[in-house]
Amino acid sequence: MPSDFDDDPGVRWMRAWQAGDETAFDALVEAYSGQVYALLTRFLGPRANREDLVQEVFLRVVRARERYEPSARFSTFLFRIAYNISVNETQRGIAREAGNVELGDESQSGGGALAQFEDERAPSPGAALERDDVVREVRAAIARLPEAQRMALLLAKYEELPYGEIAQVLGSSEKAIKSLIHRARENLRESLGALLEEEQA
Amino acid sequence: MKPDCRSFRHRLEHALEGARGSVELTSLAWHEHLLGCGDCRALLESEEALEILLASLPEPRLPPQLARRVLARLRAVEEQRESALDRLLELDPAARAPGGLAGRVLAGLERERKAADERLNALLEQARAVEVPARLAQRVLAHLAEERVLARPRRRILARRPAQLVALGVLLGVLAAWALWPERAPARRERELAHQSADPRMLEQFEMLQQWELLRRNDLDTLLSTLPPGDQLLLELGSEEGVLGG
What share of chain B has pLDDT > 90, as a percent? Predict the structure, then answer.
């Protein structure tokens, strides 16, 4: 059955895979695994099992092969799975631990965890150290946001999803997403007050 | 909040919604509302600063060969799942075919077949071994004698029914045969059984027992008629010596 999303490459690969083209699934993983990995990293922090979680996301795609019907871009479908898996992880209490691991690892290994976030724009070692503090603080502030606010903000800011698609990912309405992001920004402005003043100055 | 402020903040939210939030915000900085509203100006500056901070976060570095590794692990998981399913199916003993099953099934069927054969033979044997009362024919004839006498005046009627007469004759013949059969049949059967035996000594003893039985019944003539001439002479000599006189 044709849909409004047949121009989306992910949807086309899913269709081809459903029709029996096994290489189409390989193409899906090639195209989207990095995006899923980045989203999970931003949402959960630099934790060791992110690759397992990426695998889990695509395993659910495998299981949905027969019943998949495109009702959005493929990335929206994938992000919804990734969000559900991330929330399960958080509810198991592992994600809360990951927040400590992120800070703990960095303090123990002199920014070891941060080293996973390559920043090619860092102009000099001194500036990089200064930037590391800012980056760590911003990440910690994002990590403290409630799950729905955090995911909505990340999808809007880093995946550049329109509010309508974010609503599909979170199973919510566009109006509710607007409100979520507004509250997320308020929370961030509050927790990053000192840094914001520095930035304004 | 003043209506102008509400309108400005609505525009601000709209600007933040787009992918190019910071560019939109810069254009908003020239909004005339900001000239007379410090709160909205502070809010805009704060949002701009937040945008810069959020944009300063580096892209997460991806592990090398991520897609290839994920694909390999997915295949391994699917294979494990398949083999786990096979193991679960093997746990069901009913689904397991033991070695030599076909042979045992066939042997069981053969046993059943033999048992059924034996039961059938026993039934046939029972049906065959009908005991015919002694002197049945004589008693039947005796019983019929009176009827026959009564039937004489109506001979003409019977004569008009030859079929009944023929049937009666056949019935009488069969009854007579039954009456005579048990006299000879057992002896013949025993002989047949004895001859089927592979042991010649058994055969000899059986013949001797038969002869002895005949002697005991003083059926000497019958015995003599079954013996070869040489044996008859010996027996006659023995009789004269009183050996067989008892």
Answer: 9
A74 within 8 A of A14, measured Cβ to Cβ: yes
CB-facing half-sphere around the CA of A147: CA atoms within 13 A: 16
Q: Cβ of A82: how many Cβ atoms within 10 Å?
A: 25
Q: How far apart (Å, rounded) are the C-alpha atoms in residues A90 and A36?
A: 17
Distance of CA B179 to the CA centre of its chain: 48
Torsions phi, psi of B31, nearest 5?
-65, 135
Task: Name every chain A residue with its beta carbon within 8 A of the beta carbon of B59.
Answer: 38, 117-118
Average pLDDT, chain B: 75
Identity of the residue in B50, B61, B71 whose CB atom sits nearest the CB atom of A117: B61
- Alpha-carbon gap, residue B217 to A27, rounded angstroms: 111
The alpha carbon dihedral of B217, B223, B225, B231 has a sign of: negative
Single pTM value for the model: 0.58
Contact residues, B window 57-76, toward A, CB-based 8 Å cutoff: 57-63, 66-67, 69-71, 73-74
Q: Which of A4, A38, A53, A15 is nearest to A164 (CA)?
A: A4
A158, A38 in Cβ contact below 8 A?
Answer: yes
List chain A pLDDT tens, one digit each, 201 residues.
777 888 999 999 999 999 999 999 999 999 999 999 999 999 998 888 899 999 999 999 999 999 999 999 999 999 999 999 999 988 876 555 555 554 444 333 333 344 344 433 444 555 656 678 889 999 999 999 999 999 999 999 999 999 999 999 999 999 999 999 999 999 999 999 888 888 777
